[in-house]
Design goal:
Elements (H helix, E strand, L loop, with lengths): L1 H11 L3 H7 L7 E7 L5 H11 L6 E7 L4 E3 L4 E3 L2 H8 L7 E2 L7 H10 L3 E5 L7 H4 L6 E5 L11 H7 L4 E8 L9 E8 L6 H24 L2 H5 L27 H10 L6 E2 L2 E5 L4 E5 L2 E9 L10 E5 L2 E6 L3 E9 L6 E2 H8 L3 E4 L1
Parallel strand pairs: 1-2, 1-6, 2-5, 6-7
Antiparallel strand pairs: 3-4, 7-8, 8-9, 10-13, 11-12, 11-18, 13-16, 14-15, 14-18, 15-16, 16-17
Helix pairs in contact: 3-8, 7-10
Length: about 350
């Protein structure tokens, strides 16, 4: 176990002596360093690598910075971040994939200075960038942020926007400053949000839009006209987007169904949303408590629910119908029991064998 971790750590940590020869950059191309970690960052990295390989490109990706390898599969194996794995799959030199625990490590900063990057680009990197880092690239550091800044500054902008039920969001390209997501905005793109899209899908779409926005604006960043046109954010309009926590994942059916539906969409993927449901066998009076993940829903009015059924979960047209606050109902289309696969409401109902459901 230790040797596997050490091997990966050696593979992904920056090797200063090896990079001295591998990181020789063309004098005609400006060195750019990319920072990102999760799968959604891949579209931004691909856009940079593809653009840099074109004959008329004036920059090259000199290095990639990402989170260190982490343990998965219950700690049995150590894996590189999705960005590191994707870069390796594309043939990017392994000694130019840097994985500091913190972006403020002196060894990392020293190695970054040796690369002499003109510009750094971040997309969901996941580490705070200290002032010492921000002073290194002369053209600054630019972040692809999936919200219309100054709205939803923070770690979970897409999730919190969906939780709020917004009809419109977008992606911003902004200079990075020491304060969180507070730098001048170079450009942005708006995106209409439908009421069924979930966070993983919206994240992917926004970073795809953001990658195109970045490539479009790179010439102005390199010639420094972006610094002139960038707009200072209006601090009076700031909203925050703190990271999600597992403790928030429980659904409370005394809330309006629209609130719960938006939460299901926002928390999709991780940490998901959970509910407590009672399964009652009326012939034996046995009552079991289930705690399924709620995967796909829609909200509706309570017109089909009788007054004496306010706690009963009924089944109508392929959905489990749960009475909620505000004379509304949450229609559950897909759910997942612990340790099981995601199933449709139809399949779940068939497994009940006549037993009744009540909300808790």
């Amino acid at each position: 176990m230790h040797s596997t971790s050490l091997t990966l750590r050696r593979l992904f940590c920056f090797n200063a002596s090896a990079s001295a020869s591998a990181s020789v950059t063309s004098p005609k191309k400006k060195p750019l360093v990319f920072l990102g970690s999760p799968q959604v960052s891949v579209t931004v990295l691909d856009a940079l690598l593809n653009s840099s390989s074109s004959p008329d490109s004036n920059f090259e990706v000199a290095a990639i910075v990402t989170q260190p390898p982490s343990r998965r599969e219950r700690g049995r194996k150590v894996y590189p971040s999705p960005i590191a794995q994707h870069a390796l799959d594309r043939g990017f030199p392994s000694d130019l994939i840097l994985t500091p625990e913190r972006a403020g490590e002196e060894m990392f900063l020293s190695n970054l200075r040796d690369l002499q990057p003109e510009l750094c680009v971040t997309a969901a990197y996941g580490n705070i960038l200290p002032t010492k880092f921000l002073k290194i690239p002369p053209l600054g550091t630019v972040n692809v942020h999936p919200s219309l800044l100054p709205l939803y500054r923070g770690a979970a902008p897409v999730q919190r926007a969906l939780q709020d039920g917004v009809k419109e969001t977008g992606v911003s390209l902004a200079f990075t400053v020491r304060a969180l997501d507070a730098g001048p905005v170079i450009a942005y793109e708006r995106f209409a949000v439908d009421d069924q899209i979930k966070a993983p899908e919206l994240l992917e779409l926004l970073f795809s839009i953001g990658s195109k926005l970045l490539i479009r604006e790179l010439p102005s960043i390199f010639d420094e006209s972006a610094k002139v046109k960038a707009q200072t954010q209006d601090d009076s309009k700031v909203t925050l987007a703190p990271k999600l926590t597992p403790e928030e994942s429980w659904l409370s059916f005394d809330q309006d169904a629209t609130v719960l539906h938006n939460k299901v969409r926002a928390f999709a993927g991780w940490p998901g949303t959970r509910a407590k449901i009672a399964v009652i066998d009326e012939t034996t009076s046995q009552c079991d408590i289930l705690e399924p993940k709620i995967i796909t829903t829609r909200a509706s009015s309570r017109e089909n629910v009788q007054e004496n059924e306010v706690d009963e979960i009924t089944y109508i047209k392929g959905a489990l119908v749960i009475p909620c606050g505000g004379c509304s109902t949450l229609e559950v289309l897909e759910l997942q029991l612990p340790g099981r696969k995601v199933v449709t409401a139809d399949a779940f109902r068939n497994g009940l064998r006549g037993r009744k459901l009540k909300k808790l």
